[in-house]
Amino acid sequence: MPSPPVKTRARLSEVRYEIRGELARRARELEAQGRRLIKLNIGNPGAFGFRAPEHLQRAIADRIADTDPYTHQQGLPAAREAIAAFHKRRGTPNASPERVFVGNGVSELIDLSLRALLDPGDEVLLPSPDYPLWSAATILNDGRPVYYRCRPENGFLPDPDEIESLVSGRTRAIVLINPNNPTGAAYPRALLERIVAIAARHKLLLMCDEIYDSILYDGAGFEPVAPLAGDLPCLSFGGLSKVHRACGWRVGWAVLSGDPVASGDFHHAMDLLGALRLCANVPGQFAIEAALQGEDTIGALCAPGGRLYEARRAVIESVAASRHLALVAPAGALYAFPAVTGAAAAGFDDHRFALELLETEDVLVVPGSSFNVPYRNHFRVTLLPQPDDLREVFRRIERLLDRYAGAADARAAVA
């Protein structure tokens, strides 16, 4: 008799991660058949020819002989000192090495922090659209995501009044992703101050995903939340993967700021969970001090003439020339989140569109609904390819949307 199937956790059925999901699997099948694809689904700089800065590479190479043992569960002392010093320069209150946690990327620390925070049924206020790892980690740690809307017509900025209306007796935290993935929105100081005030009134933990903090365009500013939060407990996430183009090194950190007494139990819980996984990747931690104290290597890429800036320009200009697309220009991060409009949007389904674009035009994008939004007329692309490649991508997108619009017009004529 065949063995019975291995039962999996029921809550996994609630988790979505299309960035590396069904469409990415189909892309691998097509590549195995010899198809050459342009893959815009993952913000992975190394896959597009970017390299981590040389001084970070040297920092690891020079200390490779010291990387064999486990280190402290919160990270190498020198790395934590460098992170704390960086946050002190920003004005983060009570930033100290003892309140820094180094992890295998920000992803691991998001999971650990929610595991430390949530009891079954507790709620976390998340942006919609969100980076879907936040929703998945909330669900898999027995919490409930509650979404506050970041509407396209508001530049993808949230409404603080709506955030406060969603607070319940089970709410434990407000998550902010700034600059935002997938929209590229950068949150102004006045907006952040209002959200901090909500967290203070309701005694909520602020969880601030700031991994794209230095990736900004056209004079957009970045406002760290921790200095605004003062004594309010705040967990700020950063790392080497995006600003320093070192995704594969899996180096992220979280800094717990605010009143140490108020966050003492949470600190101990994070420390315990970190100890249970022993420690984070050690070699990459030797690059943290060099990254935070060394030269700026991202600014030129985001300035006019820089590769990221020109890639963003290619997307903005391609959308402006399109008969079927609209875009809130990203102010930061590595993505754009265009909307399909007009006749092409009639009966539009973002997942079907992404699959047809892959099958017929050899382009892989992420459906917008993967980011936990109620509408289905958006998709996400990364800004990492060469500008000319992005212009070609949007020519192919236009071809498919022309077909959609033509079919809609034909249906209307028959009706």
TrEMBL record:
It comes from the Bacteria. The keyword Transferase applies. Its cofactor is pyridoxal 5'-phosphate. It holds the Pfam family Aminotran_1_2. Keywords: Aminotransferase, Pyridoxal phosphate, Transferase. InterPro entries: Ala_Aminotransferase (IPR051926), Aminotransferase_I/II_large (IPR004839), PyrdxlP-dep_Trfase (IPR015424), PyrdxlP-dep_Trfase_major (IPR015421), PyrdxlP-dep_Trfase_small (IPR015422). It is an enzyme of class 2 (transferase). The keyword Lyase does not apply. Residues 37-397 form the Aminotransferase class I/classII large domain. Its EC number is 2.6.1.2. PANTHER family: GLUTAMATE-PYRUVATE AMINOTRANSFERASE ALAA (PTHR43488:SF2). Belongs to the class-I pyridoxal-phosphate-dependent aminotransferase family. This is alanine transaminase. It comes from Vulcaniibacterium tengchongense.
